[in-house]
Write a structure and sequence with these properties.
single chain, 92 residues, alpha+beta, three-stranded antiparallel β-sheet, 22% helix, 34% strand, elongated
Length: 92
């Protein structure tokens, strides 16, 4: 098991560019490479892929702003007889 995550502020155009790049990689037959804050993670998605899309708004009494978010998650299963076979392919 493993999890890597990065968070940074970008412009809407930069986010759109990143999503287009991800979409192009998913559309091909090869792997998907993500750059997570200087660490590269490579995936080999298999069909089918479960696609979860969520919209959320959070506001509390007294707040002057509401936090809104869009979250997306892609999930697929791959054969693995050990934790090592199921581990992420991470490169620094």
């Amino acid at each position: 098991m493993g999890e890597l995550e990065t968070e940074e502020q970008k412009t809407r155009a930069e986010v759109a560019s990143s999503l287009r790049d991800l979409a192009e990689q998913l559309d091909g037959d090869g792997g998907v490479t993500l750059d997570l804050g200087g660490t590269t993670v490579q995936f080999r998605p298999t069909d089918p892929v479960t696609f979860k899309l969520e919209g959320e708004s959070d506001w509390s009494q007294g707040d002057t702003e509401a936090k809104q978010s869009i979250e997306l998650e892609l999930v697929w299963w791959r054969a693995a007889a050990s934790a090592e076979e199921g581990a992420l392919d991470v490169r620094e």
